[in-house]
Amino acid sequence: MARIVLVEDHAIVREGFKRLIEAEPGLEVVAECGDADQALDIVVDQCPDLVVLDLSLPNGGGLPLLEHLLSLRPQQYIVILSMHDVDAYVGEAMRRGARGYVSKNAAPEELIEGLRAILNGQKFLSSDIARRRRCDCDDMSDPMTRLTSREREVFLLLAQGLAPKQIAAELGIGQKTIYIHRASVLGKLGAGSEFDLFRLARERGLIAD
């Protein structure tokens, strides 16, 4: 069981992320807090496998806390979970030692994907950030490699012109889940619409003209 400390200053938001994480097998939130001072004490006490850290915190920002935590535990895995997704924040967080950066605008499953990737020793950027940046955490030369198997299924069906309701029936999953996968596919492939997906699939010979 991977032990996670969650640092987020908004209690309702923190509870939502906690429930999302703990719904996944093998992941457990062992402690949570809402400010930098508490976070420092808790991480030192708990020695978690991973820290999920917001950047906007009372009693000191997330970036100084990130650096302080790593000065005490250099091998500590830390992922930033923040509404600040501009390159300046992302670059500085990664420079200071964060193993990953997930935008709060990303689809929920991307956070779980990121946690698992980091726990496996990889680096991770959520798709909305990754499409704007070149990084050494994944093979970015072909964005198709970043799609999960389910996302590839949704991609092909969208490219063929099926509506989300039709895709949900085809795959036997909820329509809301299809919209989540759709957003993730568009983000990871840097596409703006289903027409872009059709064009990409056609260029790769995945569907006929």
CATH architecture of the largest domain: 3-Layer(aba) Sandwich
- Low-pLDDT runs of 5+ residues are 135-140
Task: Name the CATH class of the largest domain.
Answer: Alpha Beta
Number of helices: 10
Strand line-up in the sheet with most strands: 2-1-3-4-5-6
Task: Give average pLDDT, whole number.
Answer: 88
Give the biggest sheet: 6 strands, parallel
The assigned structural class equals: alpha/beta
* Radius of gyration, CA atoms, in whole angstroms: 18 Å
- The domain count comes to 2
The CATH homology group name of the largest domain: Response regulator
Approximate helicity band: 40-55%
Within the CATH hierarchy, at the fold level, what is the topology of the largest domain?
Rossmann fold
Shape: elongated
Pattern of helices and strands? EHEHEHEHEHEHHHHH
What is the distance, rounded to the nearest whole angstrom, between the alpha carbons of the first and last residues?
A: 48 Å
Q: What share of residues are in beta strands?
A: 5-15%
Task: Please count the beta strands (DSSP E, at least 2 residues each).
Answer: 6
Describe the structure.
With 209 residues, the protein is of the alpha/beta class. It has two domains: 129 residues, Rossmann fold (3-Layer(aba) Sandwich); 61 residues, Winged helix-like DNA-binding domain superfamily/Winged helix DNA-binding domain (Arc Repressor Mutant, subunit A), CATH 1.10.10. It is 49% helix and 14% strand. A six-stranded parallel β-sheet has the order 2-1-3-4-5-6, sandwiched between helices. Strand 3, helix 3 and strand 4 form a beta-alpha-beta unit. Helix 2 runs parallel beside helix 3, helix 7 packs across helix 10 and helix 8 crosses helix 9. The N and C termini lie far apart (48 Å).
